[in-house]
Amino acid sequence: MIIGIAKEIKNNEYRVCLVPADVQTLTADGHQVLVEQGAGVGSGFSDDAYKAAGATIVGKEVYTDSDIFCKVKEIEPEEYPLFRPGQIVFSYLHSNAHPEMTQFLLDNEITAICYEDIDDKEGKFPLLIPMSIFAGKGGFIAALQYSQTIYGGSGKILSNIPGIETPHITIIGAGYSGMAAAEMASAFGNQVSLLDLDVKILQKAKQSLPPNVEFLLSNRTNLLKCLKKTDVLINCVLWPKTRKDHLVYRSDLSLMKPDALIVDVSCDEAGAIETSKSTTHDDSIYSVDGIRHYAVDNIPSAFAGSSSELLSMSILPYLRKVAKLGVKEALQADPHFRRGLTTYKGKLTLKETAEKLGKPFTDPLDALNM
Ligand SMILES: NC(=O)c1ccc[n+]([C@@H]2O[C@H](COP(=O)([O-])OP(=O)(O)OC[C@H]3O[C@@H](n4cnc5c(N)ncnc54)[C@H](O)[C@@H]3O)[C@@H](O)[C@H]2O)c1
To answer: Could you say which architecture CATH assigns to the domain 129-297?
Structure first.
């Protein structure tokens, strides 16, 4: 198999999907790896390091010359003409949020497998978890930065300093990103309220977090109490793509301190936070009714070296499977891997995206067996 690695072109996206150490595993398996020139430079991996791992450095022909084309983020419109019909692409795609890209994948009969919907036997998302951890920690680091006066913030240092009031940080969702944010926020000495729907999750969270964290069931009463006193609200709830209600409504913003900051790690457009819309590292903050929002949808790219290593080691087993068995057999054999199949031969095979975009859905196994 010929595996291609793209240089990302999304705003401030510095990650690369495969690092040289994992490329070496693929070349040792007997596969050919094509790396687009400069693909790893943003995350600290030179073309020479890829060459030493057995890869060939190429130009834009990486799109057409590879059997499996691997990326980090969605396919940008400038990339559409570079693809060949029938190509296989493996990436974070978020097809529900990118209808134009999804139509492109369907029209060109591209086999698209998204990292974010592949699950495992426990119902977890093994290719989403590593980036959620980076997003939670990075979300708190963004809160530290954007609370600073020089970045237009409240001027409050998110830390416990004797003699001054300790900031209050509310985190909604005690999953992977929420726990990562809570670890950082509490380690800096802040008063932290961590909310989740599931008391068992809160009990487990309590075992690993310090006493400056309180654990609250997520209901409207507790959330509104927190909103009134919070300096930073960090949303880490994975919001179902088809849900129309919200946890924090626009009208709730008036309850918050005027200098409060919302960090929406989940950044689902009008999702758990009604006023949320994705932002970029270049232009990360916007205000609604005076409340500043940060909703960067590729937070891990700010830590491109570390996050690329983790992403690469996470996708490697799936790539090896596809490279060994072929994409059809690999997907037919593994229902959890198959959950990531987004489009196949012009059929939309991801149910949530089909529902959200109002397009016909084809069961992935049926599509593969057609
Ligand atoms: N911005 C970025 O760069 C970036 C990167 C990676 C992931 N993410 C996003 O982060 C989000 C969270 O991912 P995760 O892996 O931490 O999810 P997760 O499934 O591990 O955690 C979600 C938690 O939210 C809880 N929850 C659900 N409904 C709730 C409610 N009403 N109130 C309180 N808690 C509730 C769940 O019980 C669960 O514990 C996802 O939307 C993911 O797409 C963003």
So the answer is: 3-Layer(aba) Sandwich (3.40)
Please check whether the domain covering 2-114+302-369 is classified as CATH 3.40.50.720. yes
Residue 235 is inside which H or E element, if any? strand 232-235
Tell the residue nearest (CA) to atom 6 of ligand 1.
Answer: 132
| Atom number of ligand 1 nearest to Cα 223 | 32
Q: 309: Cβ–Cβ under 8 A, 6 or more apart, which residues?
A: 19
Catalytic pick from 31, 94, 98, 293?
94
- The helix (run of H) or strand (run of E) holding residue 313 is helix 304-325
199 CB-near residues (< 8 Å, 6+ apart): 217
Residues 213 and 194: beta-carbon distance below 8 Å: yes
Per residue in 228-244, pLDDT (tens digit) is 999 999 999 988 878 89
Instruction: Enter the DSSP assignment of 226.
Output: H
Beta bridge partners, 70, equal 5, 90
Assign 319 to helix, strand or coil: helix
**pLDDT interval class at 159 (50, 70, 90):** very high
Closest by Cα among 141, 145, 140 to 156: 145
